[in-house]
Structures are given as structure tokens and as C-alpha cells.
Amino acid sequence: MTRSPFSARSPQHVVVVGGGPAAHRFAEAVLSVEDHHVRLTVFADEPWVPYDRVQLSKALTGPDGQIDLTLGGGTVWQDPRVDLRQGVAAREIDPAARTVTAADGTVSGYDELVLATGSAAARLDIPGAQHALVFRTLDDVAAIRAEVKRLRARYGRTPRGVVIGGGLLGLEAAGGLQELGAEATVVHSRRWLMNAQLDEGAGRSLNALISARGVRLHLGERPSGVGLRKADGEICAVEFRDSADLEADLVIVATGIRARDRLAYNAGIETAPRGGVVIDDACRTSAEHVWAIGEVASWNGECLGLVAPANTMAEIVADRLAGGRSTFGSFDTATKLKLAGVDVASFGDAYGETEDCLEVVYADPARGMYQKVVVTQDARTLLGGVFVGDAEPYNALRPLLGRELPGEPGAYLSASGAEAPAGDLPDDAVLCSCNNVTTGAVREQIGCGVHEIGELKKCSRAGTQCGSCVPMLKKTLDLELAKAGVEVSTALCEHFELSRAELFEAVRALDLSSWDEVVGRFGTGLGCDICKPVVASVLASQRDEYVLDAGRGALQDTNDRALANMQKDGTYSVVPRVPAGEITPEKLIVLGEVARRYGLYTKITGALRVDMFGARLEQLPEIWRELVDAGFESGQAYGKALRNVKSCVGSSWCRYGVQDSVGMAVRLELRYRGLRSPHKFKMGVSGCARECAEARGKDVGVISTTDGWNLYTGGNGGATPAHAQLLAQGLDDDTLVRYIDRYLMYYIRTADRMQRTARWQEELDGGIEHVRAVVVEDSLGVGEELEEAMARHVDRYEDEWAATLKDPERLRRFRSFVNDAAPDDSQDYVLERGQRRPATDAERAAAEAGAGPVLLTGPRIPVREGAAGATPAGV
Questions:
Q1: For the residues 133-147, what does the mean pLDDT come to?
Q2: Which candidate in 165, 180, 356, 386 could, as Cys together with 346 as Cys, close a disulfide (CB 3.0–4.6 Å)?
Q3: Which comes out higher in pLDDT, residue 545 or 513?
Q4: Of 95-99, 325-329, 354-358, 802-806, where does mean pLDDT reach its minimum?
Q5: Contact, 361 vs 43, CB < 8 A?
Q6: Briefly, what is this protein's role (predicted)?
Q7: Could you tell me which residues come within 8 angstroms of residue 422 by beta carbon, excluding any fewer than 6 positions away?
Q8: DSSP state of 499
């Protein structure tokens, strides 16, 4: 550590103006310098402890008041050397007298002053703009949430939101509006979104993906005003000079940021023509003993609104105050994020502006995918890259910026299907750009005995800010442990030393049939929430017996024990299977009558099924008896099993259809229904290359061609979407089914607990080539055995709800109270868009005060019979 020249005298008093991320990093850095006797006074004009603005969208879309964005847990502000003055803004600084006057009238002298005032949201100079909201602070988040709620109550419909600005903040705001239940339209002056980070190809791919998620786009035009109704002054439109107005109930402006440099300007400190406090390479301003860091600082005529340079500036000033000589040079502009569920990343020379550079591009506009790697003319040195739709290559490529690639550039484009060369990162490669952590620093921590990813993040600081480097951090950890010969535990949990795959084979070899037998042979203790459901799944997938019998009921998760998914209000959802989405009018009528009779909220899912919400536990047998009598069976929406097989209409109706996709989808869904697995899985069958069933986004995807079926595997949605990879092509019906049998059984036998097919397939040694060798070429000689295992499942399958209804003992578990068969009628609901939903705490309180909505109470809602569109009685 740098030793301070001030250690022999009284503590150095440093005043920090600003309470954002840059101020937080400076406080951490200056307090960590050995022998630097310092005390800090920090003026934060917001009432909050400094929080992470990068994660602000989580506060917008998460549970109200339950998202904590406090940086570093707030521990630095508990240091006795720090006086954090929350909600107290600095009003004036006097560099000559070295004083800061606060808004409350107090005057603080300083030895050194650090300006970390950050930036404010830009405002539009158009009529009516003063009525628009912005998206920059926690107060802004609260205002947006409150306005959406107010508008919904005022108009009784979905509010219409318009976001002006198609950059990062604008897209986050649009996604947030959707999550809050409002419509979202993005207005952007350029023809493609995020034009500051993405070239045209990437930007237009992003346009397509964002539009596909229901966000409307109005591109290539600036607004001329925000229209207000004369009657009540409410926002009614966003206006344009050359096109029709957009209807709007609320408007959010997210067109950029402006440095908060007024305090410095008034004190005579030099500011840049385009805004910001001018600094040199040491972050010094034009005034003695005054420094500037973060978004307010203008370096080489530019304010840098990124995390990495702000952190670097903070550490430079901390080092300088302790007698060091560090300087600010180049900075990392890399960006990786997920906007409205879409992966976007760019780094380095994303526009390909370097002279004589080469651009290696993979573009698939139909899928909204764009990947580009920029290299030198000899195709050896990496200059930059941009990725939309699939940003997986970013993790491996960004640390190699400016270095020679180990292999061909095209091999790094995951969309190309090529296998990227593996190789360790050099020690001086920056693994975490936010905190400037090198790979060598990470290796040093691993060498000192840090072998857990959570502890490694804490000790090295890598992955603690934006988190985009965590996959590479984990890969580095695994590689270093492998080199050192350190055995990485694959134990299922503290009760089983075997991995899930090892336990599966052991249970199969010994033909064990109960928890007691399994834990007695291979485990210890009473088990836990990890191993019990795993053992239950293993037994279910091998024996295909009633999932809640033979001592296995107590092992299951809550949803499995009820054969239904529990919802937020304690009620359950009912999801009958609708193979391939094909359903007769008679069955549709049954679903409608059941939902109306029991007052269930209904929704068509993306999986081509009808979800019915709000059933009490004791109602489930009644509901399912009606459904089973009508020919329905369980959709296994509650289990780690096959959820559905999605299909288009194929050759049955579509003029582009090549084969009968519906028939194949029905065949597959009926074959694999009820199949328990390490994780839930889905399938899709498309009748032609237009891919209306989105088969390549499924664990198993089938696409029809003129040569036969093409089989794709290892795709999925969820938190980390992945496109399925081509396993085999030109298959006839029976060969297709045989390969799927093998694939699923091999996955069930070898995958880890809660591991999706995409991650399992990636982590297999050899990846898709290994899977192809086992499934298609039968390289392990187990193909026939895997097919036989699947055949046994098909022969033994019995609908779980049909089996439940036949047995009075099984029905006993469906009671709200163990010692009372009476229903639980303690739930409150409100009517919204013609259906009931759980009431919020605020709505209950308002109803009790006589000012809120009418509450509907009880386990079921009687309805007026007769007229179409019948509503719950009393409403």
C-alpha cells in the first residue's frame, strides 16, 4: 500500500460534494490507504445512502420499497472517520478560503475538496416538457411508479406511456413501464436504438427484438411538444411536426445527462464548453486543492458517463492525496446489459473506425441476431466487437481487447456454430473493467486459497458492480483449480457426497425405490431442501409411479405436493395439458365454464395453454374432476418435467407449411408428458423455416424442411436465453423420435440438479459434438438402453390428477387446514379488466377507509348465470 506523507500530522480533512457511486468509491479508496490519517465530510443532496444507479431499473420493476441498491452494504459510511450528511446539499464553495457552505447554513473548512456532483437528467426545450418525468434517481423511480398507479385508477385501463430517448436509460424505462403494467412507446431521433454504442446492423437488430417484445418504436424524428388536455391539464399526446401525434398518458424523458457543474462554475473553476469541470490527468481542477471525479469531470473535453472511468478517477484522487503519482489515461467503454430481455454488448472499436480494419459479421435479421468482431487487417489483433440477441462471445473477447486472438475471429461468433479456441487470459488482461481488476489479481486470490466464487468476488472486487464479468471469473476459477489439482466438490449437498448424475446411476443400478433406501445407502442425516426434491425426481423419472406415493410426497416441493403452482396470495393455478395448442371448441367451452364457475382468472400463456388462477387448495379436486371428465389431464406446470410442445399450424392450414407440425407436436407431447427431469423443459415444432413456433428457443426444437425434420437441442428461455444447436437434419418421423428419446434420457441421467439443457450441453466435454456422437452415432453404445428407458416411461404413464381422484386417501391432502375440511375464505380480491386478482395492502387499507375499490372475499365468486360476459355477483 502507498504510505502517506501526512501520517505524522493531524488528520487531513477532505470534503466530498456529492453522494453517488463516484463518492462512494472515493471514500472506500481513501480510507483504505495505510497510515493516511484522514477524515471525510460528504454532502449528499439525496436523502439516501449512496446507491447503485446502474441497477436503478431493478427499483423501477421490483417490489415497491423492497429493492436495496445501497453500494457496498453501506459499511463505509459507518466508519468513525466519515461524516455523511444525507439530504444536505452544498450551496457554495470558496476555493480561496477553502470552505463549503451547505444549504442548511453550516460552513465546513477543508484541506482538499473533491467534486463528485455527478449529472442530472437532460430536459427537453419543447412546449409541455415540464410535465414529463425523468429516470435518473430513486425519487424519479417513485414518481414513475406512483404515476402509473394513479393513471390506472383514474382511467380504469392500461396507461399509455411514451419514452423519449432510445438509449440505455430510455430502453430501461420502457421495459420498466411494461413491467408496471403500462404500454410503452419509444421515441428516438435516430433510425436505430442505442446509436451511441451500436452500429446500424446491431441497432436495427435491436429494433426488431425490442419491437417483438411489445414496445412500439417511433424512430427518426424528434418530438415538437407534449400535448395537454385543456379540460384538466393532463398529458394526452406527444406531438411531432411531420407526423401524427402519439397518444400518451405519461411521458418520460431519457435523452441523456448533463454534468452538474454549476457549483464549480459559480466558484470560478474552469468548466468545459459542453459542460463539466475541466480536469487534468491527475483529476485536478483549475483551483488549488480542488479535484473532480465521475460524471461531472470533463477530461479531454468529454464527460464520461460510465462506471469504470468514475471508479478509476476516484482511486487516482485517493492515491494523489496519499502522496502517489497515478494518472488517468485511457478508459474502457465496454457495455453489456440486458434490455427488456434482450442481450446487448459492445466494446472497443464497435463501429470499425480504425484504418484498414476488418469486420467479421454474422447477421440474421429474421432472428434479430447480430454479432461482429473488429480486428486488424491481418485478422489477428482484436479491436472491438458488438453483439445483439446473443452476447455470449463478449465474456471471452472483451479481456482480449488490443491483443492477438488465439484463433480465427469468426470462431468467436457463437451464432456461426464454430468452436472458439480455448485459452487462458494473460495476467495483465483486465477481467473486470468496472473495478479495473486484472486476471493476475484474481489468480493471486485463488492461489491464496479463495476457492468459492462468492468469496472470490468479495476479495478481488471483480463482478461486484455490473456483473457482466462473472462468467469469465467463474471460468478462471475453474481453470486455476484444475491446474492446481484441486478437486472441486460435486457433492449434491452436505447429506450426499455423490453428484446428481452419480446418484441417478447408483439408484438405477440398485433399483432403489424410496427415500429411506437411498439415504440409508448413500446419504446421512434427515436430508434438506436440496437433496429431497432431487431424490424424488430421480425416483419419479426411473420408476414412473404416482409421484406422491411410496413415501415420496414429503420429498417434493410445495407445488409438486399440491399438483399445482402456488400463487402470491396462497391460491393455486390450474393448467390442463393442451397438446400442441390444438383444442376442440367443446373443450374450450369446458375451460370457460370451469373458470366462470369457480371465479378463476384466466390467461392464454405463451405455451399455448389456458392458465386459470385463484383456486383454493380444497377446490383443486373439484375443478380437476370436471376437467378430467371432459378429457383433460395435468399439464405438469408445477413439476420439473415437460411443460409443453409449441407448434404452428403447419401443412394442415398454412400455405407455407412443409409437414404436419401439429401432428408431430401432439405425438411428442403425449410421448414425453410427465417425464421428470433435472429442470423443466419445453419443445417446439415448426412446419417450415419461417419458425413460427420459435423452436430454436426450446430445449428440443424441430423444424420441417423439404428433406425431412431438422432437430435442434439445448435452447431455452429463462434468465439466460440460448439458441438451440443443430443436432441432426433430414430425419423421418421415427428417427426423429428415436433421437429425442436418446437425448432426453441422456440429459436426465447426466445433468446436475436444476441444470437446464443449454447449460448441460455447453458444459459437456465436446459440447454439441459430444451430444451428437452419443445420440446420433451411439458412440457409448447406450442408444438402445436409452430408448428402452423412454419406452418404459411411455408405457407406465398415468395422469397424476386422474390417479388422485380415484383414491380418497390421496384426496385428504387437499385441505386448507389439516384438522378442518372447511375452506379458507380469508383472501381479498379486486375486479380488474373483468376478472378478479389479489388485492394489494394499499387497496385493502383504502377499502377499510371507505375510499378504495370494492373487495371481493371468499374462496370462490358466485356469478350471475345467463347473460354473456357474466360478472361476479355483487360487483
A1: 93
A2: 386
A3: 513
A4: 325-329
A5: no
A6: Catalyzes the reduction of sulfite to sulfide, a step in the biosynthesis of sulfur-containing amino acids and cofactors.
A7: 406
A8: -
**Lookup: cell for 715:** 435452447
Report the candidate in 601, 620, 557, 609 with the shortest Cα–Cα distance to residue 578: 609
pLDDT in tens, 523-553: 887 777 678 888 888 888 887 777 666 455 4
- CA–chain centroid gap for 720, Å, is 7
**Residue in the structure block whose three cell numbers are 478560503:** 97
* pLDDT at site 280: 94
Quick one: angle between helices 733-750 and 661-672, nearest 10? Answer: 40
* Element holding 298 (H helix, E strand): strand 297-299
Give the cell for residue 802.
386422474
Question: For residue 838, what are the β-bridge partners?
Answer: 829
Model confidence at 819: pLDDT above 60: no
* Cell, residue 219: 424512430
The CA-atom distances, in angstroms, between 200 and each of 338, 388, 562 are: 19, 11, 51
Backbone angles phi, psi at 796, to 5 degrees: -90, -10
Predicted confidence band of residue 556 (pLDDT cuts 50, 70, 90)? low
Q: Looking up cell 415497491, which residue turns up? A: 64
Q: What pLDDT, on a 0 to 100 scale, did the predictor assign at position 870?
A: 35
- Residue 271: alpha-carbon gap to chain centroid: 39
263 vs 260: CA distance, rounded Å = 8
C-alpha cell at 132: 414529463
H-helix or E-strand spanning residue 594: helix 585-597
Lowest average pLDDT, out of 58-72, 572-586, 744-758, goes to 58-72
At 618 the three-state DSSP class reads: helix
pLDDT grade, residue 586 (50/70/90)?
Answer: very high
Amino acid at 488: V
Asked if 581 contacts 608 with a C-beta cutoff of 8 angstroms, the reply is: yes
Burial class of residue 188 (count of CB atoms within 10 Å of its CB; 0-12, 13-18, 19+): buried
Confidence check: pLDDT of 686 > 90:
yes
Q: Are strands 565-566 and 572-574 parallel, antiparallel or unpaired?
A: antiparallel
For residues 381 and 361, give the distance between their C-alpha atoms in angstroms, rounded to a whole number.
Answer: 16
Contact present, 36 and 12 (Cβ < 8 Å) = yes
Closest CA to 578 of 641, 666, 701: 666
Cell of residue 651, nine digits:
401443412
Tell me the DSSP string of 301-343: TEE--SHHHHHHHHHHHHHHHTT-----------EEEEETTEE
Dump pLDDT digits (tens) for 793-814: 999 998 989 988 988 878 877 7
CA–CA separation, 284 and 268 (whole Å): 14
